[in-house]
From TrEMBL:
<protein>
    <submittedName>
        <fullName>DUF805 domain-containing protein</fullName>
    </submittedName>
</protein>
<feature type="transmembrane region" description="Helical">
    <location>
        <begin position="56"/>
        <end position="73"/>
    </location>
</feature>
<feature type="transmembrane region" description="Helical">
    <location>
        <begin position="85"/>
        <end position="104"/>
    </location>
</feature>
<dbReference type="Pfam" id="PF05656">
    <property type="entry name" value="DUF805"/>
</dbReference>
<feature type="transmembrane region" description="Helical">
    <location>
        <begin position="25"/>
        <end position="44"/>
    </location>
</feature>
<dbReference type="InterPro" id="IPR008523">
    <property type="entry name" value="DUF805"/>
</dbReference>
<dbReference type="GO" id="GO:0005886">
    <property type="term" value="C:plasma membrane"/>
</dbReference>
<keyword id="KW-0472">Membrane</keyword>
<keyword id="KW-0812">Transmembrane</keyword>
<keyword id="KW-1133">Transmembrane helix</keyword>
Length: 122
């Protein structure tokens, strides 16, 4: 699996300022999913799945929650939305559908109030 924006993700792991491209966002989601799956696999092997999810999976998920929120806010910034729209996650079903839609749409191809276009290399 290739993570083209891993350096960018690690540099901005705790920052919700600026913008994150679709590739950066989805690369982080894939990496987080992989880490949680590895933790789950290890936990199942070590503890025979008793009380799943256990402390290992919950610990990895807790460590990834802050960076996931930061990259999600930056992704919203990239499409011109303020970060507080992330609270839609608390609206059952519809909120998740709207957020996933927004995370998938194309970036604003110009500077917006959250910074320059991250894809602009000129």
């Amino acid at each position: 699996m290739d993570f083209p924006h891993l350096g960018q993700i690690l540099r901005n792991v705790a920052s919700s300022r600026g913008r994150a491209t679709r590739t950066e966002f989805w690369s982080f989601v894939a990496l987080a999913t992989l880490l949680i799956a590895c933790a789950a696999s290890l936990e199942i092997r070590l503890f025979s799945g008793a009380g799943f999810p256990g402390p290992l999976v919950l610990g990895v998920a807790a460590l990834l929650l802050g960076p996931l929120i930061a990259v999600a806010v930056r992704r919203l910034h990239d499409i011109g939305k303020p970060g507080h729209w992330l609270f839609l996650v608390f609206v059952p079903v519809l909120g998740a559908v709207i957020l996933i839609w927004w995370f998938c749409i194309q970036s604003e191809a110009r500077r917006n109030r959250h910074g320059p276009d991250p894809l602009d290399t000129f």
